[in-house]
Amino acid sequence: MSRHFFDTFHEGFPITVLLGWDRPASYFFLVIEKPTELGENTMTFDFLYSNLQEIYPFIHDLNYYREVLRHFNIDVPESMFIEVQHDCVRNVGNRIVTHQADGSFTERVF
Predict the structure, then answer these.
(1) Is the pLDDT of residue 11 over 90?
(2) Are 107 and 87 spatial neighbours (Cβ–Cβ below 8 Å)?
(3) Phi, psi angles (nearest 5°) of residue 45
(4) Rounded Cα distance, 96 and 2, in Å
(5) Do residues 48 and 32 touch, judged by C-beta distance below 8 A?
(6) In this predicted model, what pLDDT tens digit does every residue of 62-83 receive, in sequence order?
(7) What residues contact residue 16 under an 8 Å CB cut-off, 6+ apart?
(8) Rounded CA gap, 22 and 46, in Å?
């Protein structure tokens, strides 16, 4: 599974956008996480969106996820979509990438 992360803000709250390609199941996925502080330095995560919340969670293309992000007024760098599409074409798994607003990105090397 490839995982592409982008940290940003939504309505004043920090969020993490996770977009990727699931190689074993052959589908794209999108998760938008929002951290929630519970106090005493404890944190959990709420989800603004997860493709697993969809009735048919495994059939959507990247354009669908563009629209989901647009619905939430969340901008992500185009590099995310380009790199996830490359992952699909090459059927890449186990790739972890962090994207920056300027379109640059870094890949974690194992």
Answers:
(1) no
(2) no
(3) -125, 135
(4) 6
(5) yes
(6) 999 999 999 999 999 999 999 9
(7) 5, 6, 7, 32, 33, 35
(8) 22
Token pair belonging to 24? 């074993």
Which tokens go with 55? 């009735």
- Of 40, 95, 100, 50, the closest CA to residue 72 belongs to 50
Chain center to CA of 90:
19
Place 42 in a pLDDT band, splitting at 50, 70 and 90.
Answer: low
Residue where the block lists tokens 């969670």? 57
User: Does residue 56 register a pLDDT over 80?
Assistant: yes
Q: Are strands 95-99 and 2-10 parallel, antiparallel or unpaired?
A: parallel
What is the pLDDT at residue 41? 58
Nearest of 39, 34, 30 to residue 84 by alpha carbon: 30
Amino acid type, 46: D
Tell me the pTM.
Answer: 0.89
Decide if 14 contacts 35 (C-beta within 8 A): yes
**Cα 80 to Cα 3: distance, rounded to the nearest angstrom:** 10
Give the pair of three-digit tokens for residue 46: 């709420």
